Major histocompatibility complex class I-related protein-like
Amino acid sequence: MGLLAAMALVLTSVGASDSRSDTLHYFYTTVWEPKQDTPWFTAVASLNGHLGGHYDSKTRRAVPRLSWMKKVEEEDPQFWAWNTEKARSDELRLWRDMENLKKQYNQTGGLHIWQKMYGCELREDGSKGGYDQYSYDGRDFLSFDKETLTWTATDHEAQLIKRAWEADLDRLQRNKLFLEEICIGLLRKFLEYGKEAFARKELPTVKVTHLMDPSGKLETLVCQAFGFYPKEINATWRKDGVIWEKETFRKSIAPNSDGTYHAWLSIRINPKERDCYRCHVEHASLAEPLVVGWEEKTVPFAVGTILGGVLAAFLLALVGLIVCIRVQKKKRKTSPTSEDKSSEPESDKLMTLTPTHNTATIQKFTA
């Protein structure tokens, strides 16, 4: 499994979770493209799955992405300057790593990607976790074990780097110190600054849609939950009230730009049994579980009748207006000249208002 897949696994599963955990992860990506003088580099900090900070090789500045993370500057005015210097140093180091990798793999051209993911986790029971992993061209390459101070390599080229890094005991100790103390300290600080945001509860909006297979023999029911916070949620498909894992596919919970989360799970069923299935959702914001099934969207009879009547009236008025305009145009084309006005009927003469008519006459005529 490549590092990009590992990044996805950082997110919480849609299913039940025994305990809540808070995470702080950093993702580095260096991309070498053909005809490019220097690789493109980007670094992001992820707090509980949300983008907390960002740096790239164009701006070369580390900046906060969550509004409340700017509060860190009140306590430490140099915090983001320190992050900028660290990101620049890591950028140069990953550039050198990529140069060495290209030589080891005898690569002179093509697109190449060198990635690093590291960070820490603070679980509800007080236990901690730490991670430091590398990926090259989408494949797992190296992973660090902070307990044994060793690296796990996946191929011969990775073995060469493993031996070099394990020979640097000072570097191994720095990695362990960061994962177990510095990272956990930063995570706790960020959680304190964002405690109001993290303490809120947002209700999930849940809906069920369906997709027919081309064969017409099976269909897929999709249960979507979005706009909820906190991220822990337990969603299951139930058939006649019984949890039904067979043919169920789950997607990991993912963050929204507004700080909430979304998730979905699907199940393949026989369309004839559609009414037996319900999506069952449990969340901290709910007093009781939400149970939602698929419902065909139809327009109620009364509403449809009213809308039809309004539409018919509108079309009738439109047709009348068109006819009126055409009649008026025809009249103007066939209207008498000044020589023939004496022959106009008296009723038509009353319709011609000249300046000699006073206001009283006009009002009397139009009344």
